[in-house]
Amino acid sequence: MNTEGEAAGDQAGDQALSGPQRCGLVAIVGKPNVGKSTLLNALVGQKISITSRKAQTTRHRITGVRTEGNTQFVFVDTPGFQTRHSSALNRSLNRAVTGVVGDVDVVLFVVEAGNFTLADAKVLALLKPGIPAILIANKLDLVHRRGELAPWLRDMQQRHPFTEFMPISAKNPKDIQRLLEVCAKHLPEQPWWYDADELTDKSERFMAGEMIREKLFRLTGEELPYTSTVVIDKFEEEPSPKFKRMVRIAATIVVERDSHKAMVIGEGGEKLKRIGTEARQELEQLFDAKVFLQMFVKVRSGWADDEARVRSFGYE
């Protein structure tokens, strides 16, 4: 039985939820390997963007959705802006970044707290006037003397008229909640674009390729060039008397040299087996299904410099 206080609280909550809906696009931008994908996963509350220590892991615009109260946040994680090489792959990644920053409601510009490099400056130059930009000073947990941040923050304000400064750690739930509240203020009143329980606009087929690529990078270390990729050849759901849901996937890992192929397969096939096992376990959790995963490794020399092949492998 409700007390009067509980009844009043319920009524206030109902009124809040029946108010105007807010919905808008929030772009997450920054140089490679600055923590954008980790931040996206924290903001959505579910792993939808792969992470690894290897720079340039994210290669696509990954949309993550979080619905909280009256507000639906549509986050767009972008590849790190490439400044070192000008391959067809890198040009594709940069188009993904520049195509986002001018058409959003708010931008989260992610830098490592206390640092600002030439690579950061090149991303900052992409920000459009008139779009609110929030400076995300990430990896705050790695800064030992917080007092040193004050002059750095003043310097950052001179570089760009940021709407807000937010020193955060993506691992801290309170920081993430605070960031959501700040973002919400900049989103327009309009109907939601997605159902309340949706987390991403990416297909399961796409997510399968991404999770395999993450395990590939994590388990091969720095030796394997980042130009390696994964192509999903088959993604089929099959009826099963034993499992409530069963998915059969065939995937090809594409590398540029025979030596890279040997590295991925490993001695006696052990490395490839481990990549497959870890990817399958994560996909079963993500899809809530029994997953059968078959993997192959093929050499496609020079694919990252071939515009047509880059497009055929699913890059914009």
From TrEMBL:
For this UniProt entry, what's an example GO CC term? Answer: plasma membrane
Q: Does the keyword Ribonucleoprotein apply?
A: no
Sequence segments annotated as region (G5): 168-170
- Biological process GO annotation list? ribosomal small subunit assembly
Outline the extent of the Era-type G domain.
22-189
Membrane protein topology class: Peripheral membrane protein
* Keyword Repeat belongs to the record: no
- The record's region (G1) falls at 30-37
Keywords on this record?
Cell membrane, Cytoplasm, GTP-binding, Membrane, Nucleotide-binding, Ribosome biogenesis, RNA-binding, rRNA-binding
- Region (G4) residue ranges read 138-141
Report the principal subcellular site.
cytoplasm
The domain of life for this entry's organism is Bacteria
Question: G2: where is this region?
Answer: 56-60
Classification via CDD domains: Era, KH-II_Era
Can you say where in the cell this protein is located? Cytoplasm; Cell membrane
Q: Which residues bind GTP?
A: 30-37, 77-81, 138-141
The record's annotation in PROSITE patterns points to:
G_ERA, KH_TYPE_2
InterPro entries documented for this protein: G_ERA_dom, GTP-bd, GTPase_Era-like, KH_dom-like_a/b, KH_dom_type_2, KH_sf_prok-type, P-loop_NTPase, Small_GTP-bd
Oligomeric state and interaction partners are given as: Monomer.
Q: What does this protein do?
A: An essential GTPase that binds both GDP and GTP, with rapid nucleotide exchange. Plays a role in 16S rRNA processing and 30S ribosomal subunit biogenesis and possibly also in cell cycle regulation and energy metabolism.
Name this polypeptide is given: GTPase Era
Organism placement in taxonomy: Bacteria, Pseudomonadati, Pseudomonadota, Betaproteobacteria, Burkholderiales
Q: Which gene encodes it?
A: era
